[in-house]
Amino acid sequence: MKGGVGKTTISAHVMRVLYHRWQKRILLIDLDAQFNLTQTIVRQSDYDTLLEEGKNIIATFEPTPSNDFFQIKKSDQPPPLPSAIGKRIRRLGRNDESHLDLIPGSFELMKYSMIDDGKQLKSAANYFSRFISQARAHYDLVILDCNPSSSFVTKCALENSTHVISPVRPDKYSILGVGMVDKLFTHLGVDVEHMVIFNGVRRNGPRTTVENELRTHSTFGPKTLIGRLVTSNLLAADPSYTGFATDKQRPYSHTLRREIEAISDEIAQKLGFQR
Amino acid sequence: MTIPSRYRGITAIALQRLSEREIRSLHEEISSMSSGAFLELVRDVEDEIENSVGITLHRARESHAFSSKNESLFRELDALRKKLKVPVYRFADLLTDSISKVEHIRVSEVPTFDSRRGLQAWINKLSKSFPEQLIYHAALKLDDELDSNRDSEWKLR
Question: Which of A35, A37, A163, B135 has the fewest C-beta atoms lying within 10 Å of its C-beta?
Fold first, then answer.
């Protein structure tokens, strides 16, 4: 998907509400070399500590510390458990029965776009696959926040996914992108359930021509969630605030939370969650 | 005594009627925390409180004859019905027809509308047979058929 359509917004703010409302164990994985998801919810000083401790996304592709920007370390050892390389962001219950964890992103992820040795990439892809299999045993939901390009990392994410959420803005280019994402699934031979969500619409605003086109489309209409993410200052990146939008105590935060709750319920239903 | 506004947060601690020892121990624990860790702790406690309130509300809603489930779908469909200016029974007929076309099924396979129970009850029944997104899609197709001036140049294929 295009940059700026709301992938990180969904990964952070919708999943934060879903975790709390459905009391699930959710793991967020920042798969973008620009690590905006991490920057949204983790303070810089904490991030520096996590990097020093080797707690970041690179540890899901190869054993860390990684020696070389152009080499991928191989290992037959099992990848680390998510708890060893993640950060607990939220917890609920006496024994943290529900929790929201994050595997922080890293710029080093760029290396997998630079390396063109198929053998090395295959080793990283296998390692990542094994990591995700382990994570599935420990979490009810694993969220992979991808970068906009169709890179090696995105391919790894799709190959290990059961569902894909494509946020779209109600503009012509975003809408056309939905069809391309579906084509990519076919090319990669991945079998995923595709959900589409509108982001950046006006609260109580009428449906635009492009929104209508998508919602009445025979393939994508039934895949499009009814709930829409509205344009809100609370969801915009605020340089003076690190954390979840729905935790801010500002005008309209309660309204935004109710709207996101409706979206999280729709997603939870699609995922087959039971209370 | 008037409590200065900056100590507003302490009223919650005061309401707990903690012993002096407990207050000292709490102070000690919080003093050793970074401001970030303290903030996270407060947010987690907020979640716990909201959660217990949320569960009570959820139970109250569950026991209500018309659950709030499908409420947003109902609101959207009713707004659409008003826009189309059709009575409820006519809208139910049109939507039944549209769902049968979208799903390639017979009209008789779509749950029947019961005018005594109303639109919301019917939508609840529908959503047990079809995903909500599909029902909404079928409803919007109705709207689309009646307004052909909204075509865009570049179409999603």
Answer: A163
Selection from A95, A96, A195, A93 nearest residue A143 by Cα:
A195
Q: Which of these, A157, A34, A160, lies nearest to A104 by C-alpha position? A: A34
Provide the H-helix boundaries in A115-171. 118-138, 152-159
Cβ pair A212:B144 closer than 8 A: yes
* pLDDT at residue B60 tops 60: no
β-partners of residue A25 are A99
Residue B84 contacts A, CB cutoff 8 Å = no
pLDDT in tens, B95-131: 999 999 999 999 999 999 998 999 999 999 999 999 9
ipTM: 0.77
Q: What is the rounded distance in angstroms from the CA atom of residue B150 to the CA atom of residue B143?
A: 11
Interface mutation target, options A24, A217, A246, chain B, most CBs of B under 10 Å: A217
Question: Using the 8-state DSSP alphabet, how is residue B141 labeled?
Answer: H
A210-226: average pLDDT: 93
Q: Are the beta carbons of A32 and A146 closer than 8 angstroms?
A: yes
A213, A226, A205: which is closest to B144 by C-alpha? A213
Any B CB within 8 A of A194 CB: no
| Residues making up chain B, counted from first to last | 157
* C-beta separation of A166 from A52 below 8 A: no
User: Nearest by CB to B154, which of A172, A224, A275?
Assistant: A172
Radius of gyration of chain B (CA): 27
